[in-house]
Prior knowledge:
It is a single chain. The protein has two domains: about 15-60; about 60-105, no CATH class. A hairpin with a 2-residue loop joins strand 1 (about 65-70) and strand 2 (about 70-80). It is elongated, with a radius of gyration of 31 Å. The longest helix has about 45 residues, at about 15-60. The chain has a two-stranded antiparallel sheet with strand order 1-2. It contains two helices and two strands, in the order αββα. By secondary structure, it is of the alpha+beta class. The chain is about 50% helix and about 15% strand.
Amino acid sequence: MGPEVPSSTGLGDDPVSMIIGLVLLVLFVPVMITALLVAVELLLLLLLVPFVVLGRVLLGRQWRVEVREGWTPVWDTEAGDWARSGRAISEIAQVLQQGRAPWPSPPPQPPTTVPTR
């Protein structure tokens, strides 16, 4: 007879290994489900983006140009079709680089007076 092949998978057959395996499974399953849902949603978005852009270009929808400070929108305007929106982005970028705002400045506020006694 030849050498014996071990029948154990190396995972352990004792109760402690079973408890550790269950804890890891409980932690691993929600992460995998979340990752799967995020991947499916991202795939759907990537499949839809070309059709949405093509639809906007072909149907002549108005494009909006937005100015942001970080993630906060500061100002937006309708720029027209695809070509006009590209020109508007360039013009707005030039105005911002010159240190000016592309939007009209707000009217001056009246001075606030504090009542005296």
